[in-house]
Amino acid sequence: MTFHPLLSLAVLSIVYVIPDIYCVAKAQAPMTNRLYYINVHSKFIRELVRDISKRFDELSDREITEVLSAQGQVVSGLKYILTVRTRPKHSNGPATERCILTIWDRRWWRSRVLLNMECVLIGGVQNIHKFTGKWIPVKINRLVRNAAAFGMSVINRRCQCYYLRLISKINNVEKKDVSGLVYRIEATVTETFCHNTIANLGKNFLQCHRNPRGTSEDCEMTVESKPWKSPPFKFIEHNCR
Predict the structure, then answer these.
(1) 125 and 160 fall within a common domain
(2) What are the Cα distances from residue 186, in Å, to 196, 214, 221, 222?
(3) Given CB 3.0 to 4.6 Å as the disulfide criterion, which of 40, 100, 105, 235 pairs with 154?
(4) How many domains is the chain partitioned into structurally?
(5) How many CB atoms sit inside 10 A of residue 148's CB?
(6) CA distances from 196 to 138, 160, 179, 193, 221 (A)
(7) Residue 110, SS3?
(8) More confident residue, 101 or 16
(9) Is the domain of 194 the same as that of 227?
(10) pTM to 2 decimal places
(11) CA pair distance 143, 147, nearest whole angstrom
(12) Is residue 122 part of a domain?
């Protein structure tokens, strides 16, 4: 059997070109769990700063004036660490704080969570704002609702109740950062017509109708969230009254 000269040349070209393409792609792709630097003047960082300034309540009274450094890390999504300078909103003065923001980004869910924020006065060492150990009010989002649903399923499993109970309303949410996020969720819990069985855990009011004659009570649950781990939630405690 003979080979056509042009066919042989094409095969050799593929053999030599593919390793080069692979090496370039490997060099450009960030490695999982390793921090990599991002150009602070890039379009992506500018858009990220605009988005988090509107999205997070913790930045509602601050204005980011400069991004000093930006790093990324692949952790079940992307984690960004930004070092920025800020000043009070609408002050038009010089920057007064230097802050480190840790943001967890899941683009496929269009979700961004501010995991941690630490600020110091420029020229000083005073800690102005630090999440760790301090409860911070937060808005109800997808992550909060998932944490509440997980907590409710644990409460139902531990309860010797005959009927399944579901959250009818989330009344208040606070969080703090302790090597992850810890949520303290206050919710109104309502009895349904469904039996409290393993098969019914995870169902909602569309599948298990509310019992108008059933009992309702207010519960406070504490749930730890580490979305980059599996399972992402850990139940800590609850109190119903």
Answers:
(1) no
(2) 22, 20, 7, 9
(3) 235
(4) 2
(5) 21
(6) 31, 8, 34, 9, 19
(7) coil
(8) 101
(9) yes
(10) 0.54
(11) 6
(12) yes
